[in-house]
Design goal:
The complex is a heterodimer. Chain A is mainly α. In chain A, 69% of the residues lie in helices and 2% in strands. Chain A has 14 helices and two strands, in the order αααααααββααααααα. In chain A, α3 (65-83) runs antiparallel to α5 (113-137) and α11 (273-286) crosses α12. The longest helix of chain A has 27 residues, at 237-263. By secondary structure, chain B is α/β, with parallel strands linked by helices. Chain B is 38% helix and 24% strand. In chain B, β1 and β2 (17-27) form a beta hairpin. Classes of the chains: A mainly alpha, B alpha/beta. Chain A binds chain B through residues 1, 211, 213-216, 218-219, 221-222, 224-226, 228-237, 239-240, 243, 365-366, and chain B through 51, 53, 72-74, 77-78, 82-83, 85, 89-95, 98, 101-103, 105, 107-108, 110-111, 113-119, 140, 158, 162.
Amino acid sequence: MGNLYHNKLAQWIVYVVFFAALTIIPMTVSDSFLLNQLATYGVYGMLALSISLCWGFGGILNLGQGIAFGLGAYGMAMTMQMQSQTESNPIPPFMLNNSLDHLPLFWQPFQSAALGLLLAVAVPTLFCAAFGGIMFRARVSGPFFAIMTLAMLSAFYTIILDRQPYTGGVNGLTPPSSFQFAGVEVDPYSPTAYWVVLCLLAGATVVAKLITQSSFGLVTQAIRDDSERVRFLGYSVAGYETVIYTISGLIAALAGCCWVMLVQYVSPAQLDVSFSLSMVIWAAIGGRYSLLGSILGAFIIQGAQSYLGDTFLATWLLILGGFFIVVVRFLPNGLASLVEAGLGLFERRRPTSSPAPDGGRPMPAE
Amino acid sequence: MSGLLEIRNLSKSFDATKVINDFSMEVVEGTICCLVGPNGAGKTTTMDLITGRIKPTSGTILFANDDITAKHEHLIARAGIGRKFQVPAVLRDMTVEQNLEVAYSRQTNPFRNLFKFRKEGLKQKLDEVATLAGLTDRLKERAGILSHGETQWLEIGMVLMQEPRLLLMDEPIAGMTEGEIEKATRIFKELRKSATLLVVEHDMGFVRNIADVVVVMHMGSLLAQGSIQEIEADRRVRDVYLGEQEAV
């Protein structure tokens, strides 16, 4: 087990280096459109992180992460939409176009930015807690849970698409001005927006890492291994599954808020099945057992899509699909397992009699 | 004298088949009770019913005077019942050390455990149990690569980490060498000082060495109960169970 890949101190050092590198980017990039695009990759990174936490560490395959992401995004878009409404013009234009002459009740809390932001995060999180609680208590697991999330995602997609006067329907919501909070306007093309996303990504990553290293993380990994056995040790499996699923949903909801802040737009496409599937593919390719691997998986796939997608057009999906098949076939644990194997080779060349040099030092997480 | 575990008129049917039929027994605190009987007598089903893995059709199970009948598995485990399964069930993808750490389940609340990075008393208990189970050199190994005997010891170690009041051991010495069986005998007798054991075992030599009370099951019902001498002298037991063994 002397592999450096599993050394906690080494892992934290890699995290610090990774986020330090991301911090330097706005200082070197002057193109504000590129900076905005890089910030959206940060959002995808948060989504991949949430999948890694839930699927990789919790063993819960969630094909409906778009629910938490989409609800968070709609909450944020509603908040931003209401910020551009005034006393004399209190109703968003799309509602007027749909002959709605009053602001619906569930839109009213969004007149306050603080309350709107709170709801944008709290509603998806509470939804995950309730939905997860019901499912896991009934011992729905594995592929059956995945199918339930998929069904639930489609239900949300349909409702939002169908209720045009309240949700904007297929057109979605396009808040005309950028997000303002506590007197600060967050221009989506400014470094400020990038910093906000980066801080949330880094914060979520550190929290997720600490969770995996806590006693809670150990139990969830045990549940992934053999949930039946863990029950007889006195742990409520449903309780643990609900908590990890909810935390994962919370991260996705935050990602949804950031996304709308960056693109000033949300539509049912964000709750489309294919988008939720891409999140799982990012984590699968990057390596779902590695938080950082999953984030990098999102960066690589979305980056490649942005730059190669235009060149190959429709062929791009074939290339992506082919790449996915190759990774799943030859690297079932994703690209991160390449790093693990590489460091493992390095380890074997060293004498195994003496313990690893970092073995005795206290771990930062403890 | 009331028992730590009392089973009263327990029945379990799968469809039309009665697997457990009006079975009653009790285990007195601080003793080792061995549950024996031919294959299909319902010994493991009884363990499943005690630990809540399956729910009885009728009857009650009392543990320390609390009704635990048909409660959830984790609540029964928290009440103080630890179980070693017939087919050793360890967490195969985790290390031996992690297996023992997970089993050290004093704090089971998920929210509290989110903020817990160091468990009080874990190291001392882990050292103690690892030494007892002879796994001190194997702590960093993945549990999936252990031999059958080592896996048995790991699961016994896990049950010990739980610090239960009642230990249910389903065929604990299967696959162990003579020396290991001797060691298990010693450990079980030592455990009796602080806990109570209910052991399912086919090896009558082992039963003879450890049992304070022997309970014989046959066709889902109680056939006989008593000291090992009484059981071995019992004609009915010889007919349905011991006789078979002698014939082999």
